[in-house]
Amino acid sequence: MVLKKRVDYRFKGFPVPVIPKAPRSARRRVPFNKADDGRACAIELLASLAGQLLQESESSASSNASEGNHLPEFSHGVIEQDRQDVVKPLKTEEVHQGSCAESTFKIEVASRNSSRKSLSHAKTDCSRERVSVNTNSDCWKKVEADVKVEISDCDNKFGQCPDRLVETPENFRESSDGNIKKGFKWEQEAGSSCFQESTLADKCSLKEHLELYVSPTLIDSKSNIKSPFHRKSFPSASFSRHGNGNKLGFRDDDENFLRCKKVCTKSKAFRSPRRIAHRRIRNLMSSKYWKTAPKLKDCELSTSDLGVTNYHKRKTCYGVERSQHNTIVKRRKFFDRVSGVTSDGGFSSESVSNSPQKGTDGDKPSSPAKLHVSKAKDSHVKFSIKSIRIPELYIEVPETATVGSLKRTIMEAVMAILGGGAHVGVLLQGKKVRDDNRTLVQTGLSCNANLDTLSFMLEPTSLQAPPTVGVGDPSSQCETSQATRPTETPVLYSGITDTLPDSPLLTYPGNLIESNHESTSSPADTTVDKITSDSRALVAVPASTEALAVVPLSQKTKRSEFVQRRTRRPFSVAEVEALVHAVEELGTGRWRDVKLRAFENADHRTYVDLKDKWKTLVHTATISPQQRRGEPVPQELLDRVLAAHAFWSQHQTKQHGKHQAGPGTLKISEASAERPCVS
DNA sequence: ATTAGGG
DNA sequence: CCCTAAT
């Protein structure tokens, strides 16, 4: 059999390498974890969120490296975590909401560091998030989800990385357009070695964190962490041929990353489950919100106003998927950091503390305070923000929803908020400091001041400028948002939206909108749908549908909103040649084989891609050269495409295809000869 | 998991 | 490229 196939594969006299073929079942490289398969739970998304933010800004740059590099890929570690989640009803006030519909859940996602045992356990043990669901009859009070991301210091990979401190001249003024706000950046720290020791575990947990750059000023040198991972540029279309069969050996970063994993889990070549999961997550991560939204790429912005240099874009983040294990573990850790919170309108730093000494060295504050402000000499105030809080979210999901779906819902809600862009709000003593033009000193943030009450929060920027804008002084603004604050329309997010992929589910309470939204209009501006003016958005929940569908949520439902296309990678001529050659031999309809034969090493080309490409090639060959776009494909190839297409159209590909002894080779030739009119 | 097509 | 239905 095999031999025969070999013979059949010959095409135009070229011996074709034999592809060991086994029953498909056998060909599978390895069974993969289902768990692994794209379960993108909210938390996972959250984790990747940070990366995404940066990614958004970076992706455009390099096409090659862009695709998968920064995309977070979650592997079993994450999933495991997922499984570990403990759902604990915090309180069950009165329950039943009578009929079905929506019950309110009070969700508290909290994560604490769990004891990290050994490296091996790191993945799974890091921490768990606790989700408590509380059904409350009061719909409005519902969910209060606080995701607290701890930004903490940590040791760098080499154990040397202290807190990241951001130094800001006290007297610098926040630009009215909120430069400061632009400065925040989520970052995952690159440290990887941390898992090595249990003792470091804790530190590790702190390693990856969201980093909030309060100001674009000076960054503590130590804070600059170099990513241990390097993106290697890869030849977009270099491939090698093996024997006759053209095998393209391209791969790109993403794929490499995946590939590495394959080693471990051995998944299918084409699109490994991991990859799928990866994609799914990726997709979820990028919703239209992200696309349209100003994205947090702002982190790259430099504060020209201040005349200060900004931060250097760090590549660390999630881009480093390369570091397989590490990545995974890190992600996990990242999650770990998520802890329960209370919300108050924005992502906010939990607390601020003044820890002078903390400054440079790696002192780690044992104190719960999340945000550290240390004073530096030179009238610079150093801020080390250890955590930020997201705004209050109201989430409504059917009782029948699964915990997993709940998580996803939460994540999506978060994404919706952040997707529109976020800015930083400064709270001093519980009051929002709205006047961006004030100096720190004026605001009370001097080196000597007691900064214990200082905190920051992330607020959705999307629509109108939320609170931050403002006018006056801290106090004045308080009236508005602060006063109503408690309720300030948090985000009501319904996981269940079967329909309306696009339609924004967010609505905002008009009353809550502040009178003056002159919004800095900075970033995003009218982003997509209106997410919300104030820090909160209300997401209406189509209750009805849910009842029946237990987990309609994530997957199909909303996914559409969070889908990001893969980065486009035009086929190179070389690839086209390989494809054509393979199809000439194998015929159409056997894309899997084509893939295996000619693109096995090009993980970014799935058999579906090849099929699609063939489709377009046929089309391309059909139209006039003037109508063609992109890298011109040699007419010779196009002719072959038409010939092969004609040939295989006539001969039921699947049926006999390869088996037809003669046909393959000869007939195609014939076809070429008889081919229609390709010239 | 693949294939086939529509979008 | 994406998404789906059908295998």
UniProtKB/TrEMBL annotation:
Residues annotated as domain HTH myb-type: 564-622
Main location: nucleus
Keywords: DNA-binding, Nucleus, Transcription, Transcription regulation
This protein's record includes keyword Transcription regulation: yes
GO CC annotation terms, alphabetical: nucleus
Gene Ontology MF: a single term: telomeric DNA binding
Subcellular location: Nucleus
Chain spans, region Disordered: 57-77, 342-373, 466-486, 649-679
SMART domains: SANT
Transmembrane spans: none
Domain (Myb-like): residue spans on this chain: 563-618
Record-linked SUPFAM superfamilies: Homeodomain-like
InterPro entries cross-referenced by the UniProt entry: Homeodomain-like_sf, Myb_dom, SANT/Myb, TPR1-6-like_ubiquitin, TRP_plant
Start-end of Polar residues biased regions: 342-358, 474-486
Stretches with biased composition (Low complexity): 57-69
Record protein name field: Telomere repeat-binding protein 3
Organism, as annotated: Flemingia macrophylla
